[in-house]
Amino acid sequence: MKRIYYGWWVVVGAFLLLFCALGTHFYAFPVFFDVMVREMGWARTQAALAMTTGTLVAGATGVLVGWLIHKIGLRPVMLSGTIIAALGFLLLRTVTEPWQFYLYYGLIISVGIAGIGVISNMTAVETWFDHNKSTALGIATTGIGAGGVVMPLLVGWLISKYDWQTACLSMAGVLMLVGIPVSAVVMRTPQARKVAREQAQQQELKTEDATIGQALRQKSFWLISIGAMLWDWAYTIGLTHQVAFAVDMEIDRVTAAGAVSMLCVFSIPARIGFGKLGDIMDKRYVVMMAAGLQAAAFVVLLKTTNLAMLYLYSALVGIGVGGLTPILPGLVADYFGRRHFGAIYGALAMVTTLGTMIGPVYGGWIYDATGSYHSAFLSGIVITLLAVVLVYLAPKPHSH
Questions:
Q1: Other CB atoms within 10 A of residue 177 CB
Q2: Which pLDDT score, from 0 to 100, does residue 195 have?
Q3: Which of 132, 257, 278, 397 has the maximal Cβ count within 10 Å?
Q4: 359-368 burial by CB neighbour count: b if 16+ within 10 A, else e?
């Protein structure tokens, strides 16, 4: 019986870690955000600053994560990240002031999540594959979608049944129970097992692989990075505020959290389908298709007056984010090679972080200033379409 190629076990491990990391930290945030605003009496801009702080920290830490993986290996980085993130959720139970929310969620949890998040998992998966790379990345990132389906509903249910402190304790438990065994047993690079990657038996690392310095000097790097930043800016406007927007329309909070889960449900097949597209066509066009769906989703959101329309928005934006997530790391690997992939992708993620920082606070500021999200959602269309243009203008470098 033919043995399963070990890279596919790494894909499974990445799925589980992304399920925990993004589900607890990113997709559950809108539910925590709404209850913090209403229970603590905080302004929406004030509460959204925790997401901005967390995004800044995670982005800045991402560059360090790429470097640490290269220096000390994948496993120590992931184990440390798991423990730090779980500790942060335990501390989050004690929050009474905004500065504590920023410290525990924005700093401690975000540092930990960076260790078991997208950069470390995409680096792990990418090192195992030459053929079917985008498909493998697509399957791994379905963990993000699955976490987004389960965690908002779980957190919403725990808050309604018990309280938000119990929800924080549960998130810490999920991280420890899944993150530690998967990081310790499954996740590793081919070098750690002293075996070659799928293709490396026949071909050494290509000499044209770019260093981090060479990548930063390429116009294509900045066009892709800024395009991704703009896409994320628009995406986080909707994601962070859609539960509060729905509750303002007198939709039940748990039902509104279900719209976040719906987003993630639709992202799951999109990650696999778009991943396969990325293996057979120019990845720039795949990214542009995904971003176009997000622009269409904001058009729907502008017209939303009931739960059905909110779910339609979630479906469209879910397919869009599902399409972009596995393709972006594959695009970076195609353009700049894999030798320094972790550091280069970490640098791109740091640029993208600016969009994730701006989006939540921008949406909250618009609401606090006008009493409506209309201008925020309208600008989401414009920002997303600008991202499409920038990615289109980023041809593959001929040499480094």
A1: 13
A2: 47
A3: 257
A4: bbbbbbbbbe
